[in-house]
Amino acid sequence: MYYNCLVNIPKNTGKISRNKRGKTTYIEYTYAREYLPEKKYNVARRTTIGKADPDHPGMMFPNPNFEKFFPDVEIET
């Protein structure tokens, strides 16, 4: 469920990524990295925190995960 309000996409360099599926771009937050010794590389643990607004670059529609990772940002619900 996405909220019907817009917030700025967070500026955490290296933690925020965009994942385009079809015509929709989802904003993902990397909350942890897990090292796999048998493969000898890290695997990022990500969760979707919102959906990018195509009409307003730099803005997104947040979801409940956004509130969990960014509690200081005001969301008008």
Give the SSE layout.
Elements: E1 7-8, E2 16-21, E3 24-36, E4 41-52, E5 59-62, H1 64-69
Antiparallel strand pairs: 1-5, 2-3, 3-4, 4-5
Folded structure, characterized:
It is a single chain. With 77 residues, the protein is mainly β. The protein is 8% helix and 48% strand. It is built from one helix and five strands; from the N terminus they run βββββα. Strand 3 (24-36) and strand 4 form a beta hairpin. The longest helix has 6 residues, at 64-69. The two termini are 12 Å apart.
Features:
77 residues; mainly beta; globular
Low-confidence runs of at least 5 consecutive residues: none
Most strands sheet: 5 strands, antiparallel
Average pLDDT level: 93
**Helix-strand pattern:** EEEEEH
How is the largest sheet built, in terms of strand order?
1-5-4-3-2
Produce a short descriptive summary.
This protein is mainly beta and 77 residues long.
